[in-house]
Specification:
It is a single chain. The chain has 242 residues and is an all-alpha fold. Helices cover 71% and strands 0% of the residues. Helix 1 (2-69) runs antiparallel to helix 2 (76-166). The protein is rod-shaped and about 180 Å long. The two termini are 30 Å apart. Mean pLDDT is 82; it is low at 238-242.
Length: 242
């Protein structure tokens, strides 16, 4: 009972330890998931601003080329219109460049934070693994010590039983049973023959071979070859059950 209660307590400790590690790991995983989601969102946004930046640069170059080609063939009003368009595309390209550069810088910072968090998470998981292995090793060691102690206790109890068996005497046990349950020390008298016409009774004959005394010594028990060899109180060099 004591061993069973101890084992239940050890199992409870293991469950509590597992739950603590599970909760701590869940918190780290949720934090990592948030960082990963933020990094993915910023990466997508950066790629979109890059695409816009490249398109604005192509529009700017195209507007400048158009203005240069029509320098001598267009009138002043047309030239002014082409110049305004060139300036607009240039401003749009510069704004796209600024946004693209800003998003790249922001993505780089988020990636650095994500990497730091990733390293921290790995350190936490490594620490948990060290604690888990140490906890399980100590628990198994303690469990084996408990089982070993139980074996010692059991062996001590077995020795008490063996000492009790030393006092077992088949001859005395049988004699005690006979003295306790016997109904008498003489056998029943034989039934005499009575002649109907003869009024004189014939004396009862004594049965041959019957004796009122105790019978001889008990026979030796028969041992099967596969049976163990046991020491008895009659053995002068008794040691232990073999």
């Amino acid at each position: 009972m004591h061993l069973a209660q101890t084992l239940r307590e050890e199992v409870k400790k293991m469950e509590e330890f597992r739950e603590r590690q599970k909760d701590a790991r869940k918190k780290v995983e949720l934090h990592m998931e948030a960082f990963h989601k933020q990094k993915s969102t910023q990466f997508k946004k950066t790629m979109e601003t890059k695409k816009t930046y490249e398109q604005k640069c192509r529009d700017k170059e195209e507007a400048e080329q158009t203005m240069n080609r029509n320098t001598n063939t267009s009138n002043a009003k047309q030239q002014e219109k082409l110049y305004q368009k060139s300036q607009q595309t240039k401003a749009a390209a510069e704004e796209a460049d600024r946004m693209y550069s800003h998003n790249v810088s922001l993505l780089e910072k988020i990636c650095e934070d994500w990497q730091k968090e990733h390293v921290r998470a790995c350190e936490v998981f490594e620490s948990q693994e060290v604690e888990r292995k140490n906890f399980l090793r100590n628990m198994v060691w303690t469990h084996l010590n408990q089982l070993s102690q139980q074996c010692v206790t059991s062996d001590e109890l077995y020795e008490e039983v063996r000492k009790s068996l030393e006092q077992c005497s088949i001859q005395k046990d049988i004699e005690y049973f006979i003295d306790l349950r016997r109904t008498g020390d003489k056998p029943p008298a034989p039934v005499p023959y009575e002649n109907f016409y003869n009024t004189q009774r014939t004396p009862a004959a004594v049965r041959p071979g019957l004796s009122a005394g105790r019978r001889g010594p008990l026979p030796n028990p028969t041992n099967v070859q596969s049976d163990g060899i046991y020491s008895t109180v009659d053995d002068p060099e008794y040691s232990l059950i073999q």
